[in-house]
Amino acid sequence: MNQELLDRIDDRLRARGLTDYRASMLAAGRPEIIRNIRRGRSRNPRRDTLEKLAHVLDCSFEWLATGRGPVAPPPENPGDAETAHSGDPALPPRRGMPADVPVLGTAAGSLQSAFQLHAGAPIDHVRRPPGVATAVDIYAIYVVGDSMAPRFEDGELVYVSGRRPARAGDYVVVQVGGGDEDVEAYCKRLVRRDAERVVLEQYNPAGTFELPAATVTAVHKVLTLNDLFGV
C-alpha cells in the first residue's frame, strides 16, 4: 500500500466532497480504482490512471504522483483534452459546472434506512454536471448507511431527477408524506409499482419491502453517470 499517495488522495477527496466510489467512477468509469490502491492491489498506478484521478480531484498530476510541486492543476488549455486522452470523454473544468444543485437529504435512521428530505432550505449546494446543464427539478442526496452497497456507498452523493420517468429496475428516491413538513424518503431499486403498492429492493440485508401506494407522493429517478455527463 502506498500510504503517501493515499494521504494525498484522501486530502483531495475531503476537499472535493467525494467518496472513493464516486471519484473512481468519474476518473475511469470503474468503482475499484481507489479501493485497489487502499488494498495494496495497485501499488504503482499507471500514469494515465493518476492523470484522470488528478483531474477529478482538481490537483496537479505531479503533486498527486510524487507530492512535489503545486497542488493546483496547471491552467486549462482547450487543446489538452483532445491530445491527452484521445477517445476518452473529457471532464469539463469545474468553472463550467455551477454549484447550484440543492442537496435535500439528511440522515434519519429506520428499519429500511429512510432519510429526511428538507421541505425548507437545502442543506448544501453541489456542482451541476454537464449532462443536466439545463435540466430542472434536479436535486441531490447523500446516501445514508450501506443498505444499497456496493451500488451506492455510505456518504455517496446521488443526483435525482424529479421529472424523468422511473421504470422497474431503476434506482429511485421514493417520497412518503409531504406538505410543509420534511418528507420521509428511501433510496432503493424499484421492483414494481401498481395502484396498491410500491415494491422496493435493497441489498444489505438483501430483500424487498412494500410501501402502500396511497402513502407514496413521488418516485424520482436516480441519475446515472451517463445521464450526468451526457454519454
Automatic annotation (TrEMBL):
InterPro entries: Cro/C1-type_HTH (IPR001387), Lambda_DNA-bd_dom_sf (IPR010982), LexA-like (IPR039418), LexA/Signal_pep-like_sf (IPR036286), Peptidase_S24_S26A/B/C (IPR015927). CDD domains: S24_LexA-like. It comes from the Bacteria. GO terms for molecular function: DNA binding. Keywords: DNA-binding, Transcription, Transcription regulation. Residues 68-92 are annotated as: Disordered. Residues 34-64 form the HTH cro/C1-type domain. This is XRE family transcriptional regulator. It comes from Minwuia thermotolerans.
